């Protein structure tokens, strides 16, 4: 391997690039997809590592990264894996557009571009510490919370009881059901509640939308709630939590808007004066109240 | 112009007051005398800012796509639109294309003596323009500026589209306020096209190269164009493979304008908005006029928007139609 | 600082001398319109031209620039960063408003994390400003505290009679004037200083007479209440005829939003950055829809960004320099002045 190749492999520069030039934030590093797991009919989880096995970058739960498959574009995805899982980053990605279609078509071994981490993480080491936690997720909304849940499991003694309420359209759409059943349900002091939107054969669990199940379960407002899911679910879950006596300062969520740069400069993911890529994606719900409703 | 203007404003107020219409799409007084903006007036009170003067060049037809459809529903009332003679061609064409709900529109045809172009006034060396008065003679403007005063001939500072006015006759209206006799078209609108046709291919390419390389891809021409009413333009569609916001190669801006010209060929009424709105002063109307001239030559005189419901020569077939081979020969190189 | 002078009819010599070692950009006429472009012998300079169609920002933040080149070969991918600017250049003839526009972009691109492409151009570029000749009725740089008589940059200059008076403001500026020694003359005497002062005083007098001289930023900026401003019902009428084109954005010296797109060159994928406009419908469009579905929201975003969001994020500074380009170029004559007068403090009525 020549020096140039080495630079290439390290995702730095070659060709026209001046040797030793500062790498721009917009230039991705090289990653390789080492494993792809099919979770649901339209969700796959991709494991990304650096080609030489060195760490890609450090991240905290709730942060995101830009993935690129040149020719198909670049987009921001939340990092599904916990920082405690070293050596790789995982991304659960739903097929819903040009890039995600292309990603779903690749095979393990494919090299891609990756840059990050971006955004403000969940306050796992500060506000969450010592608290009881209630995770509420819908569909692919589990992806960003997955990272937090695994982080909490890895530091189990630092947190109080954990409840996880997760719902999706159908049983087949529950992302990473294997981990949920085999690990989360068996974790100490951790309860998992699953629900699907409509009844189906072979499902003897709960049926109904997440917000109504939440009310049925009647959690006490003595915990910190962390929500992620479709905007409409977030809206009704938040409403339900308020009815249940939660204060907005106890509720966290993570938002998603179209992003291009990831560093608060390209100007499109702002809600009022805040950029989701830089000041978010994690917001405490009382902070959202101070923003215009453009999300 | 003053008399017509007063009548137009009074009539618009009346129609809003008596409930004939619930909204008025007209021109609103600007910060300066010349920057009248198209506006949707929704209250009688707001109509105090309605103006009609020498600087109301904008064609309001396209606004009726949104405003005629949106106003539908019981008791919503009609929408009044003020249309100059040339604007009525665009309105008719949009009716032909089923883009306007005629039922919801009340057209007040407004007489026009030609609209002035502030850029052409600036080009004549006026800077810091603070006021304008129509001289008593009726064919001069007195321009006052921060740096002094001067006069211009109105004919010298008309909008490009008015240089070859189609005539003073409105092609569609519910009511007309006009003092003008129709004297037919003004000037030879194909003069510029003939000049281009007389050029060698190299000269012609150089001409368009110089003009089109100024393009900043702001899409003003497309967004103002009444014939460009696609819900999603191919140049905005990421899946089309040709969506772009800047030129990725040296031919791209030409491709954009040529494709656009082809797409509006046979439907373009020569309303001149493309050239009026271009921030870079590119004479985009020359593309459209070339196609209009060719269509006239190949299929006989045809004016898109002359009447609603026309079948244009490019979308109807007759046995007399020119053979493609002949078209190539007649079209020159 | 020392004043240097050169007769206007010898500017060609000055340009040629600069161009010997550096690329030189200045307002150049092409098919009837002026824009910044590289100087070539005979290009000339017309001091009467107030505005280029596009602002000078493109010199540091080009409308389109390549960032990365990719090559995909089956499973393997190579990623090569395109080199940032590494050659010195000079921009001549920038007026105070456009110089202030650079500062607006600086706050965005030079704040952490730094944009290396922009930074490289800023470092390699020397800005020679010129006091504008005849401000237009559309000018309102004074509203944003810009001193049109001290146009700034690395070298600032004034024209009086048939002479250009230059003064270096930075080390880069001094280095440029040093390089021009022999072409420009030492003019640091009382007479020349008086000529500059007189020209500036005369200019100030015009600025006071501008129709927009009294426009204020009252009602906007850091102190304004974001949600109140955002919720004003007047946005509807203000935006009612907006065409959703990008003219205002693309002629603006402070609009800095960009898109990142890619292009298949046939030999690989070129990823490039390109000016974008919040006025475009696809600006915030995602697979599941857009948070700004109508032109009202997109229109509001542009002006809220300039008058509220940017000031919130950058210590009260506004993202408008009052150059007036949008006043002259908007196809429907809507512009920031109309917005400020409609929504701003009572003084603006």
Radius of gyration of chain A: 20 Å
End-to-end C-alpha gap of chain C:
42 Å
Q: How many DSSP H or I helices of chain C?
A: 11
Structural class of chain C: alpha+beta
| CATH architecture descriptor name of the largest domain in chain A | 3-Layer(aba) Sandwich
Q: Could you give the count of β-strands of chain C?
A: 12
Mean pLDDT of chain C: 94
C-alpha geometry of chain C: globular
Give the CATH superfamily of the largest domain in chain A: Nucleotide-binding domain of ferredoxin-NADP reductase (FNR) module
- Taken together, the total number of domains of chain C comes to 2
- What is the number of domains of chain A? 2
Keywords:
heterotrimer, A: 295 residues, alpha/beta, Elongation Factor Tu (Ef-tu), domain 3, Rossmann fold, 7-stranded mixed beta sheet, disordered N terminus, C: 349 residues, alpha+beta, 2 domains, 8-stranded mixed beta sheet, 4-stranded antiparallel beta sheet, 11 helices, 12 strands, 21% strand, globular
Q: What this model shows, in words?
A:
- The complex is a heterotrimer of chains A (295), B (333) and C (349).
- With 295 residues, chain A is an alpha/beta fold.
- Chain A folds into 2 domains: 3-118, Elongation Factor Tu (Ef-tu), domain 3; 133-254, Nucleotide-binding domain of ferredoxin-NADP reductase (FNR) module (Rossmann fold, 3-Layer(aba) Sandwich), CATH 3.40.50.80.
- Chain A has helices at 3-9, 98-105, 142-154, 177-182, 210-217, 231-243, 285-289; strands at 29-40, 43-49, 64-69, 73-78, 89-94, 111-118, 133-138, 162-168, 190-196, 206-207, 224-228, 251-254, 270-271, 274-275, 282-284.
- In chain A, a hairpin with a 2-residue loop joins strand 13 and strand 14.
- In chain A, helix 5 (210-217) packs parallel to helix 6.
- Chain B folds into 3 domains: 2-115 and 165-177, no CATH class; 118-157, no CATH class; 191-330, no CATH class.
- Helix content of chain B is 33%, strand content 14%.
- Chain B is built from 12 helices and 9 strands.
- Chain B has helices spanning 2-17, 63-70, 85-96, 118-123, 160-163, 191-198, 201-212, 220-224, 252-264, 273-277, 285-299, 324-330; strands spanning 21-28, 37-41, 50-51, 78-83, 105-110, 129-134, 140-145, 148-153, 175-177.
- In chain B, strands 1, 2, 3, 4, 5 and 9 form a 6-stranded mixed sheet that branches. Chain B has a 3-stranded antiparallel sheet with strand order 6-7-8, with no helix packed on it.
- The longest helix of chain C has 20 residues, at 190-209.
- The radius of gyration of chain C is 22 Å and the shape is globular.
- Chain C starts with a strand and ends in a 6-residue tail after the last helix.
């Amino acid at each position: 391997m020549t020096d140039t190749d080495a630079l290439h492999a390290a995702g730095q520069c070659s060709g026209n690039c001046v040797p030793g030039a500062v790498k721009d934030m917009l230039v991705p590093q090289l990653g390789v997809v080492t494993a792809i797991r099919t979770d649901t009919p339209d969700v796959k989880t991709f494991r990304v590592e650096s080609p030489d096995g060195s760490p890609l970058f450090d991240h905290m739960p709730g942060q995101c990264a830009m993935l690129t498959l040149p020719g198909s574009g670049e987009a921001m995805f939340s990092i599904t894996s916990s920082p405690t899982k070293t050596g790789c980053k995982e991304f659960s990605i739903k097929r819903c557009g040009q890039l995600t279609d292309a990603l779903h078509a690749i095979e393990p071994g494919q090299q891609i571009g990756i840059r990050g981490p971006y955004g403000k993480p969940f306050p796992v080491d500060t506000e969450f510490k010592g608290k009881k936690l209630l995770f509420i997720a819908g569909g692919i909304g589990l992806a960003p919370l997955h990272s937090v849940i695994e982080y909490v499991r890895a530091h189990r003694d630092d947190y109080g009881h954990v409840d996880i309420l997760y719902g999706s359209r159908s049983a087949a759409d529950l992302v990473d059901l294997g981990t949920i059943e085999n690990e989360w349900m068996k974790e100490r002091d951790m309860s998992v509640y699953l629900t699907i939107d409509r009844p189906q054969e072979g499902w003897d669990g709960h049926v109904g939308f997440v917000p109504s199940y939440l009310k049925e379960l009647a959690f006490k407002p003595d915990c910190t709630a962390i929500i992620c899911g479709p905007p409409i679910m977030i809206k009704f879950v938040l409403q339900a939590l308020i009815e249940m006596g939660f204060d907005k300062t106890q509720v966290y969520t993570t938002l998603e808007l179209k992003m291009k740069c990831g560093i608060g400069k390209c100007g499109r993911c702002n809600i009022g004066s805040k950029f989701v890529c830089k000041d978010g994606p994690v917001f405490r719900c009382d902070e959202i109240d101070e923003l215009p409703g453009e999300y | 112009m003053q008399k017509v203007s007063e009548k137009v404003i009074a009539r618009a107020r009346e129609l809003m007051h008596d409930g004939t219409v619930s909204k008025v799409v007209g021109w609103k007084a600007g910060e300066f005398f010349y920057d009248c903006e198209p506006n949707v007036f929704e209250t009688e009170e707001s109509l105090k800012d309605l103006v009609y003067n020498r600087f109301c060049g904008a064609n309001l037809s396209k606004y009726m796509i949104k405003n005629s459809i949106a106003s539908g529903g019981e008791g919503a009332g009609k929408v009044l639109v003020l249309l100059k003679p040339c604007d009525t061609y665009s309105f008719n064409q949009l009716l032909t294309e089923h883009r306007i709900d005629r039922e919801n529109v009340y057209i007040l045809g407004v007489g026009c003596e030609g609209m002035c172009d502030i850029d052409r006034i600036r080009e004549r060396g006026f800077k810091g323009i603070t006021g304008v008065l129509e001289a008593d003679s009726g064919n001069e403007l007195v321009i006052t500026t921060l740096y002094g005063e001067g006069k211009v001939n109105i004919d010298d500072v008309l909008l490009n589209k008015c240089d070859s006015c189609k005539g003073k006759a409105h092609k569609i209206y519910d009511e007309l306020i006009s003092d003008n006799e129709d004297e037919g078209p003004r000037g030879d609108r194909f003069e510029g096209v003939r000049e281009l046709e007389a050029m060698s291919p190299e000269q012609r390419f150089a001409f368009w190269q110089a003009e089109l390389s100024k393009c900043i891809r702001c899409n003003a021409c497309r967004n103002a164009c009444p014939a460009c009413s696609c819900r999603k333009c191919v140049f905005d569609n990421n899946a089309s493979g040709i969506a772009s916001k800047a030129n990725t190669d040296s031919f791209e801006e030409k491709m954009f304008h040529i494709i656009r010209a082809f797409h509006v060929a046979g439907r373009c009424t020569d309303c001149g908005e493309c050239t009026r709105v271009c921030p870079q002063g590119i004479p985009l109307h020359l593309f459209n006029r070339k196609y209009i001239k060719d269509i006239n030559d190949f299929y006989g005189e045809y004016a898109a928007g002359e009447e609603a419901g026309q079948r244009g020569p490019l979308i109807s077939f007759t046995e007399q139609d020119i053979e493609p081979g002949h078209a190539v020969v007649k079209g020159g190189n | 600082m020392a004043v240097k002078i050169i007769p206007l009819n010898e500017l060609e010599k000055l340009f040629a001398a600069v161009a010997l070692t550096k690329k030189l950009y200045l307002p150049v006429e092409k098919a009837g319109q002026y824009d910044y472009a590289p100087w070539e012998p005979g290009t000339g300079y017309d001091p009467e031209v107030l505005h280029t169609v596009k602002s000078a920002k493109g010199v540091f933040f080009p409308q389109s620039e390549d960032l990365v080149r990719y090559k995909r070969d089956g499973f393997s991918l190579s990623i090569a960063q395109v080199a940032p600017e590494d050659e010195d250049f000079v921009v001549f003839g920038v007026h105070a408003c456009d110089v202030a526009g650079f500062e607006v972009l600086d706050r965005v691109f030079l704040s952490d994390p730094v944009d290396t492409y922009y930074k490289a151009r800023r470092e390699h570029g020397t800005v020679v400003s010129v006091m504008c000749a005849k401000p237009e009725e559309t000018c309102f740089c004074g509203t944003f505290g810009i001193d049109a008589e001290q146009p700034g940059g690395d070298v600032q200059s004034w024209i009086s009679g048939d002479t250009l008076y230059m003064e270096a403001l930075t080390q880069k500026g001094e280095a440029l004037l040093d390089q021009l020694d022999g072409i420009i003359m030492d003019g640091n005497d009382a007479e020349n200083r008086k000529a500059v002062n007189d020209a500036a005083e005369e200019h100030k007098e015009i600025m006071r007479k501008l129709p927009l001289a009294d426009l204020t930023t009252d009602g906007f900026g850091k102190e304004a209440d974001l949600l109140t401003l955002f919720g004003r019902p007047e946005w509807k009428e203000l935006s009612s005829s907006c065409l959703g084109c990008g003219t205002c954005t693309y002629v603006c010296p402070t609009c800095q939003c960009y898109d990142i797109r890619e292009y298949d060159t046939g030999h690989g994928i070129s990823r490039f950055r390109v000016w974008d406009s919040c006025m475009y419908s696809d600006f915030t469009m995602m697979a599941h829809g857009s948070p700004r579905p109508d032109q009202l929201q997109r229109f509001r975003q542009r002006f809220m960004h300039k008058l509220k969001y940017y000031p919130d994020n950058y210590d009260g500074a506004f993202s408008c320099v009052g150059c007036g380009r949008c006043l002259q170029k908007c196809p429907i004559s809507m512009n920031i002045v109309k917005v400020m007068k409609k929504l701003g403090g009572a003084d603006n009525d």
